[in-house]
């Protein structure tokens, strides 16, 4: 009785397996017939730092648009939080195991990725990088915003708004990953070099979390009632500062608030004057150039080692311009 | 027989929890004095009200969790669960365009449903609370992302929504804080003056005996987790109100802060002993500590270390007292 049952099961499994392989070979055949010469079989696996923030959704959009235009297929994956270095590495591992034609990677941690890059090299998979680089010798092609330059842009406008003197605080989003570090250092270095009368009184990190950043900003404003400006190094940090000012009932302009990236809350704050302005990157270009570079590598063409996708200041005056509108996202 | 059972732990509960609360209050007062000396700006009302508002979300979550921990259980799903409830509120009130008050009620109902499932899994399917609620924590995080379309849902169209946390029925006191205190009073009455509270603690001190005395402990457990789910949802809505939006990535990690607040407040992880006042004070200790360190300009890294040390000391006191009473 028992034997019979297991035999039936086996037979069933075998039929299922046959059916499946039949299907897939069929599908493969069709693909071969159509795809030759068009590059329709080229696949690029993008492993991003995340997908929850609008910024990454824009990168994804830019990459998808370019992929469609070029007739290649892409996958876009990323961990749930930008602290999950571990799960991001697993995604990269999976991508390598899938043997795509190229991989695009945005390193959450510049060192942890090195062994996996060696694997990709051994497997002969070309790698391009976006947003933040891995410190490996392989795949040295990066499309990203120059974070130090972007931080300096924020500092320049902050200094102008507060008249070149006073106390300034920074609400950072990370003291570990390169964007957080560069945007902070670019800001700090610019002020130290050009405006000795501006004192940076405090730098704290809110992980880009809106509530945590708001609480940090409130504490800074309480500790330094004469604070002239606050700088938030990403969307969540910036919105946190704006919320803090609103919750404390500060009058507009008492503290100059400079932010980073966009998102509808930040756009709204800039339009209604709660916020002085912000530095935006060009996330769609990051996605687009990543796909372009990957394709170039696949085709054996030359690729620049670093492409600065640019950082741009926007405020109430130029926010509606076409140039800015193409870069910011709701 | 059942009377004697409930009477005995209650009597010993009182002086025990008084000591723990005394310790907790003492810690809170010490922290206040210390930070005021370090930076006089600490004592300004705007900062105090900032501390209270920062406490509201975690505090409300912690109140609900107190009931769960009192049974000897745990609820890890409160952090991401609060996010899911906020997202659900957004889905109903914004995406589906239902009346906003109904959206808020349905958001709270979804919290109750999460709690119900937790309770059911714990009581009837016999999944250990740690695992059952860990699973819910992941499910809630995933569903929150899916339902929100991985983007914030903004409540800016609903004019009164931000008033839930930020309005001031009592001038100078944000409503979110008021909600926390009202819920705390409610929870205190329920825990110390009602059948629900008695059974809650009885399950925690001896579930088997409670069941043998003719109480359907399984059903009560489901009810207790459901009530905790309601608190979780309210916490999520209060936090969403502060942001005028449901942020799908908010809430991760808050569960541990809320649980720490409960334990600092003198509720026993083993169950059978709970204190609502303690929970509120525990939550306040956590946020006073963080705020004070921020005001002093202590590096973020050291703030984590300091919070960890405070939790360890608080629970160490707790275990010392347990050892003392058993000998």
TrEMBL record, chain A:
The keyword Signal applies. It is found in: Cell envelope. One of its GO terms (cellular component) is cell envelope. Residues 44-302 form the Periplasmic binding protein domain. It comes from Agrococcus casei LMG 22410. This is Possible fucose ABC transporter, substrate-binding component. GO terms for molecular function: carbohydrate binding. Residues 1-19 form the signal peptide. Pfam families: Peripla_BP_4 (PF13407).
From TrEMBL, chain B:
It is found in: Cell membrane. It is a multi-pass membrane protein. Its main location: membrane. It holds the Pfam family BPD_transp_2. GO terms for molecular function: transmembrane transporter activity. The chain crosses the membrane at residues 18-38, 50-78, 98-118, 130-155, 175-191, 220-240, 252-269, 276-296, 302-320. GO terms for cellular component: plasma membrane. InterPro entries: ABC_transp_permease. It comes from the Bacteria. Keywords: Cell membrane, Membrane, Transmembrane, Transmembrane helix. This is Ribose ABC transport system, permease protein RbsC (TC 3.A.1.2.1).
